[in-house]
Design a protein that fits this description.
Oligomer: single chain
Largest sheet: 5 strands, parallel
Number of helices: 15
Distance between the termini: 52 Å
Order of helices and strands: HEHHEEEHEHEHEHHHHHHHHH
CATH topology of the largest domain: Rossmann fold
Radius of gyration: 23 Å
Number of domains: 3
Structural class: alpha/beta
CATH class of the largest domain: Alpha Beta
Helix content: 40-55%
Strand order of the largest sheet: 2-5-6-1-7
CATH architecture of the largest domain: 3-Layer(aba) Sandwich
Shape: elongated
Length: 333
């Protein structure tokens, strides 16, 4: 990661949270174990790395890293000997943090710091620890090395052991506003109307907005809406489903998961537009034109949940996509 990013000025939103963290660092009151909780893409990881840089910095200024010293340079490059990051390992079907990773981290954390007065450990995706890893970490947090600070990041706080949560100070990272995401995208040279669309779709996550920009997310939402409109009008024929299946076969499983998510959110907007804040307010006129009974919408949403689970299997993506579309068509008819 580039050094310039490890600056509080580059954290989008969360002004009060940033001020709180800076103050705790400046006053040497940063907790020995802290849990950053919030949805993916809201800035938790960047905030954690900025904290690490400030805690390891040779010349911190009011809880901010100077960005110039050797420690700041090494932290930004992820090569500081007193900075350790644990991340989930990917398999074909899941992501998790294993006990071996925690034990390796514990060996490092127990050593005396080399360059700085302390060590900083970030555990990204703490909810992805299996039970053995979580219990192993608990022992360390209960009796932490005096010179080591732990920053746990989670997108699902309730999935963590209660005993781990109770031993960490929690800092919440709320969803970003549409305006914050839009302005941040525009500052990265995204055209204003496209930035507005992506900010709406992103659902409070700047990280997701960036992924959508790179993967054509606005177009994917349009494909999802078009598919839903054709289903509602009973226009989706067998040959259309097979053609869509062939198209989806060229996608990644992640892209198809995003397609499913778009349909789920669009269905919720159709059903609950009058009582809940819509996910896609810019599509209101088209969504109002979709006339489906509430019972069928619920069944379609349940189908989406079912097929997201199937995506975790090794089943052929094209067959999953075709089965999903046939299931939706059967529900609608």
């Amino acid at each position: 990661m580039d050094t310039y990013k490890l600056s509080w000025e580059n954290l989008i939103g969360h002004a009060a949270t940033a001020n709180h963290l800076r103050k705790s660092i400046a006053e040497d009151k940063f907790p020995h174990a802290v849990l950053f909780s919030g949805e993916e893409g809201t800035g938790k990881r960047l905030a954690a790395e900025i904290c690490a840089a400030a805690l390891l910095c040779e010349n911190p200024v009011d809880g901010a890293p100077c960005g110039e010293c050797e420690s700041c340079q090494l932290t930004a490059a992820h090569s500081h000997p007193d900075f350790y990051v644990v991340e989930a390992e990917e398999t074909k079907t899941t992501r998790n943090i294993k006990i071996g990773q925690i034990r390796e981290m514990q060996s490092e954390a127990s050593l005396r710091p080399i360059n700085s007065a302390r060590r900083v450990v970030i555990i990204d995706g703490a909810e992805l620890m299996n039970n053995a890893a979580a219990n192993c970490l608990l022992k360390t947090i209960e009796e932490p090395p005096s010179q080591t600070i732990f920053i746990l990041l989670t997108a699902n706080r309730s999935s963590l052991l209660m005993t781990i949560r109770s031993r960490c100070s929690t800092v919440n990272f709320d969803k970003l506003s549409t305006a914050e995401i839009r302005d941040a995208l525009i500052s990265r040279d995204v055209e204003a109307s496209e930035a507005e669309r992506l900010a709406v779709i992103a659902g409070g996550s700047f990280g997701r907005a960036l992924k959508l920009k790179d993967s054509g997310g606005a177009q994917l939402r349009e494909e999802a809406l078009s598919t839903l409109e054709r289903l509602a009008r009973a226009e989706l024929k067998n040959e259309d489903i097979f053609a869509k299946g062939a198209q989806i076969a060229e996608w990644s499983r992640e892209k198809f998961a995003d397609f499913l998510t778009h349909i789920q959110k669009l269905l919720r907007d159709v059903c609950f537009a009058e009582v809940l804040e819509p996910h896609n307010p810019d599509l209101a006129p088209r969504l109002q034109a979709i006339k489906l009974p509430e019972r069928k919408i619920f069944l379609m949403i349940e189908a989406g949940v079912e097929f997201r689970r199937r995506l975790k299997s090794n089943a052929n993506l094209r067959l999953i996509a075709e089965a999903y579309l046939f299931k939706l068509r059967k529900i609608v008819s």
